[in-house]
């Protein structure tokens, strides 16, 4: 038996203290941790159950900002009327994620900690080499089946795709993650693999996510999340885009635009090159498509994932066109 | 076989309960409430748990296994390796051919595919067994593997002469034809993906073995166990009242079955062994990957002059599987010249197996796409193309069709779908960013026949029991056999209880090839008829019978009551009558075998497929038929294909229960959507290993991928196909769906995708 100790934290301080222990892992909705434990990837020595801590599941939304407690369920946030009206891309990203059953269990904090679906990462028995699991052991994916792997933010150590949807919308709108002692941009919270593929998040032992905060903006209010996938439901993105748009009074010139990509990068991927190319420009389909191509600067494919380089700009363009049409 | 008078069977078909009525599944409430007990849910005293360890190489030898850490781990009772597992005897194959090897070891020393079982750990709890299995250290001598059909080492394979079908001079006629198309069509390795995994509980009591295992063939699997362990067939009891999906995969006792039964024997305790989800992708074969080339030569008016077909399917290094790729090619269209040949290529995989419509399914993908290509080449409507070349008789055997309502299927489907409004040009329909396409394809499946037996008991309280070792894996056997017995005996259907899934019941052959309903309704019809004859005979002749003094020639039973045909004299419920004559039961065993059948032949009939009756036996060629009309929407930027409408018109002959037949057809259509758009076993070429062996990564259609499906029955009773006039249902509807979708994708986009599945990168 793989024994571990179970600790139920009744308050956030207790959770932080326990989370400082070596080999400790937090349990909230359990949809990632239990799955990874079953396939032999997660082998915690201590499981700290934070799901009973009071006050961490609040959803507080104003025009200025949304503050979402780490234990709020994905389904509750997705269905929140103010989130829908003030941050539609956030609601849409959540609705298109996972399945109804998973959304009812999974927490927002845990969602940020969701790990890659790289099949090599998830199969330690057959593929011992994985720099995420065993730093320095190599990457089994490079040279293997790469249809779902990343083309942006990759390194020689790792090409695993960040699989989530919510965080793509969060980085588009400059959301922050609250770790108690410090807050940082969600965009900075996620780490590209570089030479340290095992470090996926800027989080230290003893730190616990308590909330995420999303600043309100005109671009967030007019936003959308488009997810392209092999099947219509319960599937990770082949490519996805969170886009927010604010137009000048003329109804066609871009005042502010936010663009982030999912399903194609090693972390939720903000594409400022596209934003910069469109700010101050009048929207036209041609302008939008040309600017969207800039998102693929520096893209590197590994054969079977080459299609993502063609697909991702089209997803961005579709999202911008959709928002432009609602002007 | 005996062709029974169908007038009686069909007379009350307006009634829900009668044969032909839309009775809901009688096993439904037990399944919905959780009362239905599946194989792995048996609670046995002293149950132990076995976990298998699979090879992490695709080819080579196991050079050493260090099991010391596992042996001393908590709760561990045994570590079984190729060296320590008990020796079994070689068992005959499903045709009844004796094993070429006198002994059998279900744990491999020589590895011929990744995931092959090389060891097992048995412990007091499942968790202990899992933990201990992870402690095994295995060393291998690895040799190069042949990964798949496209592997440079694979070669051209082995010609399978039995698959060759030729008439006329196909090559010359093709060369001379004024219009020609030739294209290659590929289907990937696919898996049955039943929700319930494979596995079993095995218990020995002395030399008697009881196995709880989901099974499509209790008698065949019981024979295999008996032969492995050298015990009499009667000593093995297989129990399988409910099956959580089989799709062809659960008809044979497999290596993991042998490991569990051997472990139980060695330990003297019952053993439970359930394959985990990844093991369900490597422990038994799915549909073999296939390659076909189809060349068609035609006149300018669209009449086919020649079809030249070549096919290849993968098989295993250590086992043979032939996926008959010319099966539909050779019968769908009239052609004066024809040639089909097939090779198989050995690769390092578990031996492929049966998945819903093996052979017909990939065969139809080739010919039904090719005929569409020919239609575009000629500028003829694809539906018209099919009618121009309609086969009025079996083009291969030249025999008459028993029934072929395919023309009716085309007409009914086209009408319901609105095919006449289809603009011929590709890319001619759109809705915003979505390109819309309409496609058509036909499908067929042979009427496979066999013999079965059943026991029907009329009990003292007037209720009826039907017993058979056949099974219900969701297709509705419980329901239609209850309907058959109720109608034949004249009792309300709720007074009939059907007991299936126990090899100690009256015997049945394999539930596969869409044959069970035809076989078993015939057997129950016969047994129930015998029971009824005995009941009436008793009523007319027994001195204690109130009917005896009537001096009537016959009596009738309706609604569970016995009376004379004209109503004079007594009117008794069956229970009242049984009490009057002092009987607690009337029991009849009926079978569809000729009376001259020897016991050896009977055993062979139920435990092998050697006595299956050819579908072209005698004067007739017997098939089910269907026509699928499909609408797809393809996003012009993203390449994503979604099926938005399906209308299928199907000829399965007479339907014993239309509601259940429609469910099976719809299940086949949904499985076909998965095949067309999603399903593919993806192999890491360096390791020869399936990397998407789980339900997250091996994609199946979700509800959101399935539109409203309209099915239309165009069948008529076929007296040459079964006792009650039905033809096969279960496999028919998947045949032709993938080509209908591929043809619709071409109509939408102008792109011809000939490699399944049609994923988005093939269209952007």
From TrEMBL, chain A:
SMART domains: CO_deh_flav_C. It comes from the Bacteria. InterPro entries: CO_DH_flav_C (IPR005107), CO_DH_flav_C_dom_sf (IPR036683), Diverse_Substr_Oxidored (IPR051312), FAD-bd_PCMH (IPR016166), FAD-bd_PCMH-like_sf (IPR036318), FAD-bd_PCMH_sub1 (IPR016167), FAD-bd_PCMH_sub2 (IPR016169), Mopterin_DH_FAD-bd (IPR002346). Keywords: FAD, Flavoprotein. The keyword Transmembrane helix does not apply. GO terms for molecular function: FAD binding; oxidoreductase activity. The keyword Flavoprotein applies. Residues 1-219 form the FAD-binding PCMH-type domain. Gene3D superfamilies: 3.30.465.10, CO dehydrogenase flavoprotein, C-terminal domain (3.30.390.50), Uridine Diphospho-n-acetylenolpyruvylglucosamine Reductase, domain 2 (3.30.43.10). This is Xanthine dehydrogenase family protein subunit M.
UniProtKB/TrEMBL annotation, chain B:
The keyword Phosphoprotein does not apply. It comes from the Bacteria. The keyword Methyltransferase does not apply. GO terms for molecular function: iron ion binding; oxidoreductase activity. Pfam families: Ald_Xan_dh_C, MoCoBD_1, MoCoBD_2. Keywords: Molybdenum, Oxidoreductase. Residues 33-144 form the Aldehyde oxidase/xanthine dehydrogenase a/b hammerhead domain. InterPro entries: Ald_Oxase/Xan_DH_a/b, Ald_Oxase/Xan_DH_a/b_sf, Ald_Oxase/xanthine_DH-like, AldOxase/xan_DH_MoCoBD1, AldOxase/xan_DH_MoCoBD2, AldOxase/xan_DH_Mopterin-bd_sf. This is Xanthine dehydrogenase family protein molybdopterin-binding subunit. It comes from Mesorhizobium atlanticum.
